[in-house]
Each structure stands twice: as structure tokens, then as C-alpha cells.
Design brief:
The protein is of the alpha/beta class and 355 residues long. The chain is 43% helix and 17% strand. It has eleven helices and eleven strands. The chain has a six-stranded parallel sheet, with helices on both faces. Strands 9-10-11 form a three-stranded antiparallel sheet. Strands 7-8 form a two-stranded antiparallel ribbon. The chain binds 1,4-dihydronicotinamide adenine dinucleotide (NAI) and oxaloacetate ion. The site of oxaloacetate ion has 12 residues, from helix 9. It catalyses: (S)-malate + NAD(+) = oxaloacetate + NADH + H(+). Keywords: Glyoxylate bypass, NAD, Oxidoreductase, Peroxisome, Tricarboxylic acid cycle.
């Protein structure tokens, strides 16, 4: 049955009100709304791809309350109308627009300064992050092809797992399109740092906000390498504490996957971590000085083409990559293990696009 003209008019009015870009009932082709960011604060344009998911919804909420964001585009292959309607009622500055399905990806991406990608399937108990490669590699490829075409200068925050492979995939897609700027592609490893700060603070009996633990390497199992010898403020740990903390930080994701017992992986702490990292990227874009975060980026710190270390964020993205600093024997052994596993994951990502 064809919808009445009245139904379509009503949907058009709601759509214009929400600044969304959903197809009207019965329409297959998409109309671009000419909705302006009326009353929106000056700031950056941010897109969340995978915005209707477990991470995506909370992350979108947190970006809506970030005063540096003027326009927030929410893209997913399902459920963005509801999420967008909901978030758009928050009385904060950012104007929210929703985009649904592949046909609207280009509209979602055009003009964006920062694109955050939590799209893809999460783990269930018994799976490794690498088990997600089959599905998530293709999703990341498609989304990055869109970025290369529509906002090649945007900063990209890649969350989708396995990060150790999806970042190399994104780099290859951008290279193929001739738009690769290694400084602008950042794998999000902030949750490892957030966990490390929390667990170390518990052991030390201090406020986690006072603790900063550099976590280097990658984002899976032994590739997650906390540098407990470089904790700020300077702290010393017993051998038992070092072993307990390293194991807990490396397996923090699995701890949540098991506790959720089939209902997914970390979403709330991840949304917090992603929002923290995105805010740091936006402050860097604004030109703030001294913004330093850990991230999995193209790097010459080791012989591997990608590695997570502390980076300084600026107008161009990861403008400076800091060396590892002095490691103790335990950390040097951990580094060797991390590099071995990382090399295979990076190769797998590169081969996915090249072959
Ligand atoms: N980097 C990190 O530290 C972390 C990464 N993750 C990863 O983040 C990803 C998302 O996790 P959750 O939000 O829990 O999963 P979820 O299943 O709740 O949400 C994923 C969303 O992605 C959407 N999606 C699927 N295909 C898409 C496509 N082609 N384009 C746009 N959206 C698409 C889905 O419709 C869904 O709404 C997973 O790969 C997970 O492993 C999770 C936690 C931490
Ligand atoms: O463990 C997972 O699958 C999700 C993730 O990356 C994390 O929580 O660190």
C-alpha cells in the first residue's frame, strides 16, 4: 500500500525538525535535508559510524555534550532514526543529524572534521578479537572508502576490533585512494590506559584521576603492554603486583566479555574512553598545546609499521610520536612478545586490502 501524501508530509516535517536525513515511507531514493546548524555553537563536525550500537549510543550521547562539537552526524545500518530523535532532544549546542544505511554514508561523512568508528561485531565468550576480523575487516574497508571520498582530511578514530588489523586496513584503503596521511589515522587504545589507571590506583590506594599509566604496543592480549615503570606519579610495585596488574590490564576486555556472558563486550567504559580520546583530538585540532594520549598509529618507534605509544595531538592529528622511554627487563620481555603477535596482525590487515 502506498503511504498517503499526508503521511509523507508529516514525516518530512519531523525529519526537518530533527535535522535527520531518513528516507520517507515508500521512497527508495534519498533526499538531502537542507537543515542548517541553527543556533549551534561554533565548533567541529563529528561523525559516529556505528552510532546505534552498544558503544555508539553512549559515545554519541557523550559527543552531544562536548562543547567543542557543533554538528554531530550519527550513522548506522540500523536504528539511527530512534537514536537520533532521542539524542537530539538534549539541550546542548551540537546539532544532531541521523543517517541510515549505506546509501546515506556519503551524506553522513561530507564535511566532517573527526570520524569515530565503533561499527562492527563485538566478541562473545571464548572468542579472540582476531575472530572478529572476518566480519569487521569488510565493514572498516567500506567505511574508510567513504571517508577517502567524502572527508579525506578528517581525523579518524578507529575503535572496531581487531584494532591491530583494522588500522592497517584503513591505512591501505587510504593509500589506494591516494589520500593517506598517517598522522590522521588513530587506533583507539584509550580503554587500556583507562583500565590501567583504575587498576593501578586500586593497588596504590589513590584516586585514579591522579594516575597516568602509559600503555604501548597494540590492543589485544599480550600486545597490550602497560609500562608500570613509567607510572605517574612515580610508584614502585612488588613482583606480584606487576604480574597481577599486567595480566588484569591485558585481559580487561575478556573480563567484561565473560561478565556479560554473551551480551557483548565493553560498551560503557569504551564509550567513556572513546569520548575522552575524541575530546583530546578536538583540543589538538583547536590548537591546544601539550595534548598527549596513547594511540595505535603508523610509527617508527619499533621495526613494525604500526605501534601504540604516547603521541602529541595537534592540528594535523598525531604530530609527534614519543619513544618508548627506558624499559625494565620485565617490560623488554613483554615488548618482544607483543611485537611478535602484532607483526602477524598488521600483515593480516595489509594483505586483506593488497591481495
Ligand atoms: N578499541 C577498543 O578498545 C574497543 C573496541 N571494541 C569494538 O567495537 C566494536 C563495536 O562494539 P559494540 O558497540 O559493543 O557492538 P554493537 O554490536 O553493540 O554495535 C555495533 C554497531 O555497528 C553497526 N554496524 C554494523 N555494520 C555496520 C556498517 N557497515 N556500517 C555502520 N554500522 C555498522 C551495527 O548495526 C551496530 O549498531 C566491536 O568491534 C568491538 O570489538 C569494543 C570495546 C573496546
Ligand atoms: O575485549 C573486547 O572484545 C573489546 C575490547 O577491545 C576491550 O574491551 O578492550
Amino acid at each position: 500500500m502506498q503511504p498517503s501524501a499526508e503521511v509523507n508530509q508529516r514525516l518530512a516535517r519531523i525529519s526537518a525538525h530533527l535535522c535527520t536525513e531518513f528516507p520517507r515511507v515508500g521512497e527508495s531514493s534519498l533526499t538531502q535535508s537542507n537543515c542548517r546548524a541553527k543556533g549551534g555553537a561554533p565548533g567541529f563536525k563529528v561523525a559516529v559510524l556505528g552510532a546505534a550500537g552498544g558503544i555508539g549510543q553512549s559515545l554519541s550521547l557523550l559527543m552531544k555534550i562536548n562543547p567543542l562539537v557543533s554538528v554531530l552526524h550519527l550513522y548506522d545500518v540500523v536504528n539511527t532514526p530512534g537514536v537520533t530523535a532521542d539524542i537530539s532532544h538534549m539541550d546542548t549546542g551540537a546539532v544532531v543529524r541521523g543517517f541510515l544505511g549505506q546509501a546515506q554514508l556519503e551524506h553522513a561523512l561530507t564535511g566532517m572534521d573527526l570520524v569515530i568508528i565503533p561499527a562492527g561485531v563485538p566478541r562473545k565468550p571464548g572468542m579472540t578479537r582476531d575472530d572478529l576480523f572476518k566480519i569487521n575487516a569488510g565493514i572498516v574497508r567500506t567505511l574508510c572508502e567513504g571517508i577517502a571520498k567524502c572527508c579525506p582530511h578528517a581525523i579518524v578514530n578507529l575503535i572496531s576490533n581487531p584494532v591491530n588489523s583494522t588500522v592497517p586496513i584503513a591505512a591501505e584503503v587510504f593509500k589506494k585512494a591516494g589520500v593517506y596521511d598517517p598522522k590522521r589515522l588513530l587506533g583507539v587504545t584509550t580503554l587500556d590506559v583507562v583500565r590501567a589507571n583504575t587498576f593501578v590506583a586500586e593497588v596504590l590506594g589513590v584516586d585514579p584521576r591522579e594516575v597516568n599509566v602509559p600503555v604501548v604496543g597494540g590492543h589485544a592480549g599480550v600486545t597490550i603492554l602497560p609500562l608500570l615503570s613509567q607510572v605517574k606519579p612515580p610508584s614502585s610495585f612488588t613482583a606480584e603486583e606487576i604480574s597481577y596488574l599486567t595480566d588484569r590490564i591485558q585481559n580487561g576486555g575478556t573480563e567484561v566479555v565473560e561478565a556479560k556472558a554473551g551480551a557483548g563486550s565493553a560498551t560503557l567504559s569504551m564509550a567513556y574512553a572513546a569520548a575522552k580520546f575524541a575530546d583530546a583530538c578536538l583540543r589538538g585540532l583547536r590548537g591546544d598545546a601539550g595534548i598527549v594520549e596513547c594511540s595505535f598509529v603508523a610509527s617508527q618507534v619499533t621495526e613494525l609499521p604500526f605501534f601504540a605509544t604516547r603521541v602529541r595531538l595537534g592540528r594535523g592529528g598525531a604530530e609527534e610520536i614519543f619513544p618508548l622511554g627506558p624499559l625494565n627487563e620485565y617490560e623488554r620481555a613483554g615488548l618482544e612478545k607483543a611485537k611478535k603477535e602484532l607483526a602477524g596482525s598488521i600483515d593480516k590487515g595489509v594483505s586483506f586490502i593488497r591481495n
